[in-house]
Amino acid sequence: TDTYFHTKWLGILGEKGFLKGVLELSGTLRPLYLVFLYSLYKLLGLQPEVLVDIYLPLLGLIILSLTTYYVVSRSNSGSPGIISLLAILYWAPIFVYGGFQTNLFSLSLALLYMYSAWRQQWRKTAVVGAILGLWHPWTLAYYSIAVLVFLVLRHREGLVEKILLSLVIPWFTTILVNILLLESGASIVTGIISPVHPGFNPFFMLYS
User: Which of 23, 50, 89, 110 is the most buried (most CB within 10 A)?
Assistant: First the structure.
């Protein structure tokens, strides 16, 4: 599924330059993933199809395995080696065969997001949640529900502050950054600043 879109995105980023390309692709709502994808593309110098179909799934599975191992070992909830192996065996057919590369990487972020909430590390939850939202907002949407249910059932004391850190901040960051990257968002910000500083365009780098 992602093969078609990712190769197309790499073509746009390569043709128009990274900053202009990100602005044109702002409708994908995945700015951090675009940074990651384009960085790998430039670093490895591979054909887009080879990068997307071979290297991305392999890297994604390695990161998922390491993330699973870390979470399980820190939570003392089983054998880290066996569970990380089972995670790969379970998710590989779904994500690799289906070509859901973005989802594969975002799953590792989602595990860290849930783990941080479980450990009551609320500031870390906010940071990881924001990264996840800028990587793949749909995954953040799914796991936000899980975090909200967890908070309501287990952490009612100081609930407002915990919701603010673990849910509001990630979503506010995700929405704000994507609005600023959209052309309409750029026009709004420019319209606010221009009366004070005529001719000033905060997004000049994206258009140059």
Answer: 110
Closest residue by Cα to residue 118 from 146, 139, 137: 146
Length in residues, the chain: 208
Query: CA 203 to CA 4: how far, in whole Å?
Result: 29
Structure tokens at 161: 């502050």
Q: What is the pLDDT of residues 58-71, one digit of tens each?
A: 999 999 999 999 99
Measure the CA–CA gap between 84 and 71, rounded to whole angstroms. Answer: 10
pLDDT bin (cut points 50, 70, 90) of residue 1 is low
pTM confidence score: 0.81
Q: What is the DSSP string of 69-135?
A: HHHHHHHT-S-HHHHHHHHHHHHHHHHHHHT-HHHHHHHHHHHHHHHHHHTT-HHHHHHHHHHHHHH
What value, to the nearest 5°, has the Cα angle with vertex 26 and ends 25 and 32? 95
Look up residue 83 and give its amino acid: I
